[in-house]
Amino acid sequence: MCGIAGYIGPGRAAPILLKALSRLEYRGYDSAGICTIFGGRVLTRKDVGKVAEINSRLRMDELPGNIGIAHTRWATHGAPSQVNAHPHTDCTGRIAVVHNGVIENFMALKKELVEAGHLFSSKTDTELIPHMVEEYLKRGSDLTEAFMRTLQRLEGSYALALLDAGSPDILLVARKESPLVIGIGPDFKMVASDITALLDLTRDVVFLQNGEAAFIRSDGVKILRVDTGAEIFREPTRLDITVEMAEKQGYPHYMLKEIYEQPESLKNALRIQEVYADLVAELLDRGRQIFLLGAGTSYNSCLAASYAFSSLARAATYPVIASEFISNYGASIGADTVILAVSQSGETADVLNALEYARLRACTILGITNTVGSTLTRISRAYILQNSGPEIGVAATKTFTSQVLVLSQLALRLAKLRGKIAQYEIDEIKSGLKKVPEMAGEVLDSVRLKMREVAEKLADKNTIFLLGRGPAYSVAAEGRLKIMELSYTPCIAYPAGESKHGPISVIQEGTPVIFIAPYDDNRRLNIGSMMEMKARGATIISIADRDDREIEEISDIFVGLPRVHPLLTPIIYVLPFQLLAYYMALVKGHDPDKPRNLAKSVTVL
Ligand code: M6R
After folding, report:
1. Cis peptide before 263 (omega within 30 of 0)
2. Is 96 helix (H, G, I), strand (E, B) or coil?
3. What is the residue range of 520's domain?
4. What tens digit of pLDDT does each residue of 84-134 get?
5. Can you tell me which atom of ligand 1 is nearest the CA of 397?
6. Which atom in ligand 1 lies closest to the alpha carbon of residue 297?
7. Is 482 an active-site residue?
8. Which of 10, 237, 323, 577 is the most core-located residue (most Cβ within 10 A)?
9. For the whole model, what pTM was predicted?
């Protein structure tokens, strides 16, 4: 996730764009830049760091010119660096582009442009866009046609804005999947990734839709469909919303906003870079023993992934809590050990400490993280970005589901590499994975009210049990973490089969026991465990297959979800728990974005 903005009008563009960037920084903050057109040239200032720091060094706001574009970055392709920061330009320096999204076919397109003689300076996918527009201009297209032809060749997601020093009276923008809004002023126009960046200037906006391009002059906007070139006429909408409301996109808390971002973050998690994913799978394949290492939520993703690696690739992997790794496994590791570390921040001290120990023993270190440039990316032999965008809420939500989705794709690649799975099964699973983002959106909408009711019922309980088997146990573990950290209610998560070896003694009349009971091979056993708990007076809350009448009858509270492949259980079944924890925090009067005693990134041992 990145933030983009653009301005054209009578005012000086740079200070307006700087203000817009500070409002968009929540979308990414590893580097930023602004460029304007002045005196027939594109003038650019960009660097690594936060917007305010960069501006105090480079005075981006002092750039002259009445047209400009700007970017604040959350790196996906290419580490945060001055050269990778946006805007990016073509060989002549005449065309500049800012972009939010991921161009999936950039390797092929870049190769083609390099063969045609274009010189690239960055490692980003974005840079191919100005070069391709330059190429079409060279071949005789005018700017509009060059822009449209370029867009037609891009696969993936984008919200982008483009300037041409040769046409200083027009701003070109386009959108596919990543958001873009156009602010309409009487004598100026402004574009941005979201309305927060332009509400100061105007409340009249046009929301660009997927597959549309817009050609913006200070006195008018022309919208075309990218595929057909057909013109679209759309009246501006008048917004009645404050900047503060807009920052959380209408949600009262970042956590709820991030929960509802999952359809988008899951889509981004499906866009892992093929070459790195193959490399990670190959390196995993070489390991005599494979450890999956993480802390907190990231450890729970590792738990979920051990099911995926076993069932798909027939590979035994060991999920380990990072702080336990050295004592319990340290003496057994060596050059044939592979450690796949999972960390949203890439900076968790327990993870890095374990990895440093492993590095000194010649283990292969691999990483999955949300943060390019983090220590984890620097010490990993290969790493994969989960592309979730910044997560502001202390409780991990969208980053968990994305981690599981990335890990599942890796398990699938390893399965293919090892020849453990037929091609038709791979295709089936892949098409199932592609449906996850949409399904996540449907589930969130369908269970929200129910989870608010459940939260009210559970808010005054002293203890809550969560039980599940196989992939559903990782949901129990993650549900426990969410409920505990946000509502401060002690929770006990157990593999359901183990609950009879102790936890059952704690059950009394009315003790809430939440079963994660999808329609899988463990269903019968789950029903058995439910009956055991019910017989001792437990209140049974089931998160189960929506058509499972038998479980519905046994349960005091029943939350129905769609039937899913067990691989997807951790992603789909965790969603009600994120909402439950959120609403329990509200019922108990806690701030869900800032739970007590916790930090977003724990950088102490
Ligand atoms: O950045 P990481 O994924 O390494 O962070 C690990 C934990 O600190 C993190 O998951 C924490 O437990 C969250 N607050 C869980 O919601």
Report:
1. no
2. strand
3. 444-593
4. 999 999 999 999 999 999 899 999 999 999 999 999 999 999 999 999 999
5. 16
6. 10
7. no
8. 577
9. 0.76
